[in-house]
Amino acid sequence: MDKNEYLQLSKENGSSPRCPLISKCERRAMTLYYEDSSMVQYINYSKFLSAMIDEEGLDENYIKCIGESPSFVGGESSFRLSNMCPEVSLFENSQITVDTLGLAAKAVSYDKYFKTPSKSMVEESGHYSECAEYAKFSFERKSNSQTHDLFEAKPGMFGFTINLIELYRRVVKWRKRYH
User: Fold this and answer.
1) Which helix (H) or strand (E) holds 132?
2) Number of folded domains in the chain?
3) DSSP letters of 35-98?
4) What's the predicted TM-score (pTM) here?
5) Would you say 49 and 41 are in contact if contact means Cβ atoms under 8 Å apart?
6) Is residue 142 part of a domain?
7) pLDDT tens across 5-23, in order?
8) Do 91 and 69 fall within a single domain?
């Protein structure tokens, strides 16, 4: 999926053109780490993650990977990257050493002996809306936005009842916001 197809899919889904979790997502951070193949050999991932928080604006309360994390298998002459954030290869390709051919790559193979000019092959592409972290974020956002009436007109002792669960939810939300 190229950039035009990617943006068109976002439009069709009624979602933002880019993933709203960019600054909060560990999958993106791990993808950046693995796609710069020179880093993997020399830099510990926890140090890289700390640098992402300090220098690149990764939220300290980042969303951890759900399911299979991005992975790197191979060596210098050939390797395979999988379970990647498609946003990185499509929009942040200046930060990566693997040629993803301008596609929203979720899995890519590289072999210096491939007979293609780029020496890499995109095996799977995708959209951020297919990502497990985005699905969780989207679900939580929808469930948090559902409102319930605090007072309900039901037969009761005085002609109305109080929804105690909703009262508790609102008090907790208010305390988080103002304390």
Assistant:
1) helix 132-145
2) 2
3) HSHHHHHHS-HHHHHHHHHHHS---TTPBPP-SSPPEEEE-SSEEEEES--HHHHHH-GGG-SS
4) 0.72
5) no
6) no
7) 999 999 998 889 999 998 8
8) yes
